[in-house]
């Protein structure tokens, strides 16, 4: 991606997401990717998780009106060219985020692309979104998303479709598309039966496949966040969605290849170009 000359203001992007105290996922992963790619990252914090390499033991939610106020404050002064959502924790936060994004032209038919990474749980199975918030996610936020990027566990929670092969992955993409986003990326990294990590992109008419050999590092904490963050960076530079996904897939693949051990559990992806 192009970078600003020293002293020049870089392209600005925003993450609306939770903090990972272990520094691997969440806003920490997003800001790492934004900075490494030469963009200026801004944050609307939704929750502070209590987390290390072994898992999430709790989280504290930010009041919904404070989440919305962070977005409004940044956009009115610093500006954003693209944004993403990650952990949103609760239905009231999802509602506040949907309303402030609509007000500011983020997502929907506005000029600012919005990547919705529908974070529901950590890789250890710790819940990061209240179950009763799934309806709000589907009914409020999905219709204004430029692209949604669920993994297969999130696909099952959101659509009831159990993806086991290419045909069911297409069914899942259609079901998600019917919820209103402009594009759907069904990430296949959790398809354990495959030696590949097949991601499927759908815009309501055509399917695009992005496949890479599975990289089993044991250290892939924050991989989903990193993919969505790199997508936001490419969209902010004006890439069309398929090109942004191609770029982001390469970025996260490099991150998996350079992932490192940390603590006694799972280490983070380490994006290096
Ligand atoms: N913690 C936060 C704040 C996150 O946003 C996420 C994922 O988006 C996670 C933890 C879980 O990451 P992983 O599934 O890579 O463990």
TrEMBL record:
It is an enzyme of class 2 (transferase). Keywords: ATP-binding, Kinase, Nucleotide-binding, Thiamine biosynthesis, Transferase. Signal peptide: none annotated. One of its GO terms (cellular component) is cytosol. It comes from the Bacteria. Pathway: Cofactor biosynthesis; thiamine diphosphate biosynthesis; 4-amino-2-methyl-5-diphosphomethylpyrimidine from 5-amino-1-(5-phospho-D-ribosyl)imidazole: step 3/3. InterPro entries: HMP/HMP-P_kinase_dom, PM/HMP-P_kinase-1, Ribokinase-like. NCBIfam families: HMP-P_kinase (TIGR00097). This is Bifunctional hydroxymethylpyrimidine kinase/phosphomethylpyrimidine kinase. The gene is thiD.
């Amino acid at each position: 991606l192009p970078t600003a000359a020293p002293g020049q203001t870089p392209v600005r992007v925003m993450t609306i997401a939770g903090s990972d105290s272990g520094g691997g996922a969440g806003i920490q992963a997003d800001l790492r990717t934004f900075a490494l790619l030469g963009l200026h990252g801004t944050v609307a914090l939704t929750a502070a998780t209590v987390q290390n390499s072994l898992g999430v033991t709790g989280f504290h939610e930010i009041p919904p009106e404070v989440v919305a106020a962070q977005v409004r404050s940044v956009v009115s002064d610093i500006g954003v060219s693209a944004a993403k959502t990650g952990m949103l924790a609760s239905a009231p936060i999802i509602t506040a985020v949907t309303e402030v994004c609509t007000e500011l032209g983020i997502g929907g038919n506005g000029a600012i692309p919005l990547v919705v990474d529908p974070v529901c749980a950590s890789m250890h199975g710790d819940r990061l979104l209240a179950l009763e918030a799934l309806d709000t996610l589907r009914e409020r936020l999905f219709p204004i998303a430029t692209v949604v990027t669920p993994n297969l566990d999130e696909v099952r929670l959101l659509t009831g479709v159990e993806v086991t092969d290419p045909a069911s992955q297409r069914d899942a993409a259609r079901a998600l598309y019917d919820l209103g986003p402009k594009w759907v990326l069904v990430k296949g990294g959790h398809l354990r039966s495959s030696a590949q990590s097949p991601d499927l992109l759908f815009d309501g008419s055509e399917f695009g496949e992005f496949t890479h050999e599975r990289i089993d590092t044991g250290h892939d904490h924050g991989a989903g966040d990193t993919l969505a963050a790199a997508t936001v960076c490419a969209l902010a530079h004006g890439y069309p969605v398929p090109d942004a996904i191609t770029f982001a897939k390469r970025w996260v693949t490099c991150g998996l290849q350079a992932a490192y051990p940390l603590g006694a559990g799972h280490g983070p992806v380490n994006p290096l170009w």
